[in-house]
Design brief:
256 residues, alpha+beta, 9-stranded mixed sheet, 36% helix
Length: 256
Amino acid sequence: MERLYERRQRQNVDREQLLADCIASSPIGQPTPGEQGFLQAFVQPTIRDDDLWDRAVVSCGDERQLLDRLRSATSSVPSGQWGTNLSKILNWRQRGADKWSLNTASQVSDPSAIGPDDEIVADLSMDGRCYFFYGGAAVTSDRNNARRTIFALYERGIAVNLAQFLALVGAYYRAGDQWGPIHIGMAVTGIRGAISAHFMEDISMSAQPYGDEIAVRALPFDTRDLEEDPVAASQKLMDRLMRAMSGGIVWDPLSD
């Protein structure tokens, strides 16, 4: 029993460190308080495997076919009317010797022209470590011609992008014959004072801004969870944030 407790404590500490490393990996620094909120996430096997990418390439025939299969996996999660999402990124870019990336910078001739709200990065390392960044989790809005700008958290954008990222990673692990326990973590940073975009027009809800700088969740999963239902995995990671933003009202950001 004591050894089991120590192992669980060690796994909790590991996930906390992975979350801290994930947040520190932001490609554009930390969000401006009251103006920006970022979604960051990670997935990695409990035991990393340096041969994972090579196995995935062999199973698909070649690297280009693997990359095409992985990118197409993001479309398994419908984006609805949400325009800025991972499935819209078409081109892969290799970063260093052991990492491939889907990112908005690869889509334009001048990456400096990309605003923080439209910044998306999905990195897949060849040993199974995967990282995601989405810059539009919370932004200032003057929707409906409000007399003042409102700092709004866009649950739908978070849900779409997180689920698409998990579908991408699930396809990667499946292609590489990676099975077993994995760590998944999510952090939404810079969101103190944000209100729910979904309830923005509800005066009673707008009086309940989020009271902390960050929302985090890190949990153990199995690779099968990402293959069978990445949406359910994303919902589990988001459920506490969703309840906090909605005053306990249950709604599905991917329902329409």
